[in-house]
Design a protein that fits this description.
Layout lengths: L6 E4 L4 E4 H16 L5 H10 L7 H11 L8 H4 L7 H7 L13 E2 L4
Parallel strand pairs: 2-3
Antiparallel strand pairs: 1-2
Length: 112
Amino acid sequence: MDILQPWGKTGPNSTFHPALFHMLDVGNVARVLLEPSATPRFRWVLSRALNVADTESLVRWLPLIVSMHDIGKVSSPFQGKVVTPRREQRVSDSSGPGLSSAGRTGKYIGTN
């Protein structure tokens, strides 16, 4: 299976943003929001809500947890949600629904 095949976000004209890229994107956003240059109140509120004594420890583990929020998107049932003209062919060509790179129906968002 092509690691970039599972879609995370869909776009116009059969484009998609791979689930892996989406998870890396949101993990990095979480990391930036927790950096010292960001508002300390945000780290303080999160640490209280998550019952974490050391606000600095959030930076070490929370971005990973946030990045994993969509891990279910790589599952066959989720990948089968998008209906495209070639979806039936993609499913029949693959070892699991929606996972075949040979039957890819769209392009990565941002590519030509």
